[in-house]
Design goal:
The structure holds 2 protein chains of 2 kinds.
Chain A: E1 2-5, E2 8-11, H1 20-26, E3 36-39, E4 42-43, E5 59-63
Parallel strand pairs in A: 1-5
Antiparallel strand pairs in A: 1-2, 3-4, 3-5
Chain B: H1 3-8, H2 10-13, H3 19-28, E1 30-34, H4 40-50, E2 54-58, H5 83-94, E3 99-103, H6 112-116, E4 121-124, H7 129-142, E5 146-152, E6 155-161, H8 169-172, H9 185-188, H10 194-211, E7 220-225, E8 230-235, H11 263-268
Parallel strand pairs in B: 1-2, 1-4, 2-3, 4-5
Antiparallel strand pairs in B: 5-6, 6-7, 7-8
The chains are: A mainly beta, B alpha/beta.
Chain lengths: ~70, ~270
């Protein structure tokens, strides 16, 4: 299955069904418990990570917390 | 404008997007910089140089030796001096036309409204999520446009928030992460030039906002990867479930995000 993650075309290993949650685990995404996921232009509620299914051609963005700046 | 001012700002005035009228808008503009550190340093220097008439700067901290690798507004001789004082001296040395207002305090739910009230545009140059969420909430509730910036190691991000029109920080991140869940620059490091890049973008947004020219970085988060030397913009829509600017906001008044504060913030507050 081909999807686009953070602008990069990515081939997922098998054609099995995956939720966003299982994708985060599979890819070992950093800040996994806190990362914001945008799926095809819509920001997902965290509760939807367990139910939203990844489909061929999906465009996914992971948005990370960055807290630095002053000190 | 006197002759010296015409000469000082000549490279602005010659731009058709600025001109004498635009320069006057910058003189009349008021920008508040929260955090006189890595991000705040280039913002303060460039806004002063640009002739933004009133610049407020908020920080309770003193200059530390470990700051100097990236906080280019502070010099070795400033160690131990309040950051806002050190910043004010450099800004006025660059441009005596500019009025600098210093606030040697941390922003809190109790004081932030009165601090931001006098300004047209706010820069978030803070280093912790308690402050970043407080700034978002205060600016959204007050309808005050602001620029968010964040940095870590070799990556940075920035987005401009026009309350009620474009997505806010909570549209992207509804809640702060638990304390210590995300490493800070002091724990994880930051390449010194990184805040220079992100802060300069934030300063550009403030200037464009005052001029009313160009397209602001609203509805799009810009991410910068210094190691890969790549910029990426990701379009973001307003989140109808956003806890502060969504259809049924749960947050209607300011409160300090105590759970997101680090021990060091609590000492400061």
């Amino acid at each position: 299955m081909k999807i686009t993650i953070n602008g990069k075309e990515t081939e997922l290993a098998e054609n099995r069904a995956r939720t966003i949650d299982s994708l985060l685990e599979e890819l070992d995404v950093s800040q996994r418990l806190y990362v914001t996921v945008e799926l095809n232009g819509e920001i997902l509620d965290r509760a939807a990570y367990e139910t939203s299914v990844v489909n061929e051609g999906d465009v996914i963005e992971f948005l990370y917390f960055m807290g630095g700046g002053a000190r | 404008m006197n002759d010296q001012q015409i000469e000082r700002y000549s490279r602005h005035i010659i731009l058709k997007e600025v001109g004498g009228k635009g320069q006057q808008k910058l003189f009349d503009g008021k920008v508040l910089i929260i955090g006189a550190g890595g991000l705040g340093a280039p913002v303060a220097l460039y806004l002063a140089a640009a002739g933004v008439g009133t610049i407020g700067i908020v920080d309770a901290d003193d200059v530390d030796l470990s700051n100097l690798q990236r906080q280019v507004i502070h010099f070795t001789a400033d160690i131990g001096k309040p950051k806002v004082e050190s910043a004010r001296e450099k800004m006025q040395a660059i441009n005596p036309d500019v009025k600098v207002v210093t606030y040697k305090e941390w922003v809190t739910a109790a004081n932030i409204n009165s601090v931001i009230a006098d300004y047209d545009f706010v820069i978030d140059g803070t280093d912790n999520f308690a402050a970043k969420f407080l700034i978002n909430d205060a600016c959204v509730l007050a309808g005050k446009p602001y620029s968010h910036g964040g940095i870590l190691q070799f990556v940075g991000q920035t987005i401009t928030i026009l309350p009620g029109q474009s997505p806010c920080y909570r549209c992207l991140f509804p809640q702060p992460p638990p304390k210590d869940a995300i490493p800070t620059c002091s724990q994880a490091g930051v390449i010194g030039v990184l805040p220079g890049v992100i802060g300069s973008i934030q300063a550009t947004e403030a200037i464009k906002f005052l001029l009313g020219k160009g397209d602001l970085l609203a509805g799009r988060i810009l991410m910068y990867d210094a190691l890969g030397m790549k910029f990426r913009g990701v379009d973001i829509k307003r989140n109808p479930n956003c806890p502060i600017c969504g259809e049924h906001p749960a947050i209607t008044e300011l409160k300090d995000e105590v759970d997101a504060m680090t021990v060091c913030d609590l000492k400061g507050a």
